[in-house]
């Protein structure tokens, strides 16, 4: 599904020689649920940004499916991301002026999907996350758990081949956290490939495999 081969990432603002990622090799198979753990500054967000086609490596190769993305343009990566990657953020990132239905529909609008097909797909996703009765409500009317479920529906609306979850329960209480983790497990059980960043060993235990990062490198001995 995805493969990082000797991937490094250096930012101009970083101290000389410092790398956010330093020669990382990682493979994630189609249908796997992988958790990525590590302290702040370990390179987790940088790795997610590269895997999620938001950023590019300074060196090394990234293969997505059968495609080598090493020399793709920013616009090409953005198009691939829209078609193949769903991202669930810790902070929800819902648009306050749009209701639940419109927030979930937005990615399809950007892709010029016909209106009837958009409406059918959005209704399916809202039913999946249990929010079909809240379609006309706005983000400010929802609990934190409900907002995260809207964000999950939006991430899934394009039927992505890869779901990236960046601390998806970090702003939730225990009950809503359990609901979101159960939903990710359900999506994985249905065949989705999931890469989740978390600081919590308890949350990571929901995954099939745990990768540990420190100082931009995968910790020796971790199964990759």
Radius of gyration: 18 Å
CATH class bucket of the domain at 28-42 and 82-218? Alpha Beta
Strand fraction band?
Answer: 15-25%
Task: Summarize the amount of helix as a percent range.
Answer: 25-40%
Which word captures the global form?
A: globular
- Please give the largest β-sheet: 6 strands, mixed
Number of helices: 7
Q: What is the CATH topology assignment of the domain at 28-42 and 82-218?
A: Rossmann fold
CATH-wise, what's the superfamily of the domain at 28-42 and 82-218? Answer: P-loop containing nucleotide triphosphate hydrolases
Roughly what is the average pLDDT, rounded to an integer?
A: 87
The beta-strand count equals 10
Q: In terms of structural class, how would the helical and strand content be classed?
A: alpha/beta
Question: Please, could you describe this protein's structure?
Answer:
- The chain is globular, with a radius of gyration of 18 Å.
- The relative contact order is 0.21.
- It has a domain at 28-42 and 82-218: P-loop containing nucleotide triphosphate hydrolases (Rossmann fold), CATH 3.40.50.300.
- The protein has 224 residues and is α/β, with parallel strands linked by helices.
- 34% of the residues lie in helices and 23% in strands.
- The strands form 2 sheets. It has a 6-stranded mixed sheet, with helices on both faces.
């Amino acid at each position: 599904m995805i493969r990082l081969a000797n991937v490094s990432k250096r930012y101009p603002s970083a101290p000389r020689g410092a790398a956010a990622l330093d020669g990382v090799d990682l493979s994630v198979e189609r249908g796997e649920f992988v958790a990525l753990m590590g302290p702040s500054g370990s390179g987790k967000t940088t790795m997610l940004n590269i895997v999620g086609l938001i950023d590019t490596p300074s060196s090394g190769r990234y293969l997505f499916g059968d495609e080598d993305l090493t020399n793709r343009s920013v616009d090409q990566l953005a198009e691939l991301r829209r078609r193949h990657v769903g991202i669930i953020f810790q902070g929800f990132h819902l648009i306050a002026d749009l209701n639940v239905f419109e927030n979930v529909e937005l990615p399809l609008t950007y892709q010029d999907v016909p209106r009837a097909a958009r409406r059918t797909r959005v209704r399916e996703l809202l039913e999946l996350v249990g929010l079909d009765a809240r379609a006309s409500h706005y983000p400010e009317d929802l609990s934190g758990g409900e907002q995260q479920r809207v964000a999950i529906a939006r991430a899934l609306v394009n039927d992505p081949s890869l779901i990236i979850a960046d601390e998806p329960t970090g702003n939730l209480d225990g009950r809503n956290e359990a609901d979101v983790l159960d939903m990710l497990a359900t999506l994985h059980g249905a065949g989705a490939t999931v890469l989740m960043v978390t600081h919590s060993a308890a949350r990571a235990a929901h995954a099939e495999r745990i990768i540990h990062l420190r100082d931009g490198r995968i910790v020796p001995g971790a199964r990759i």
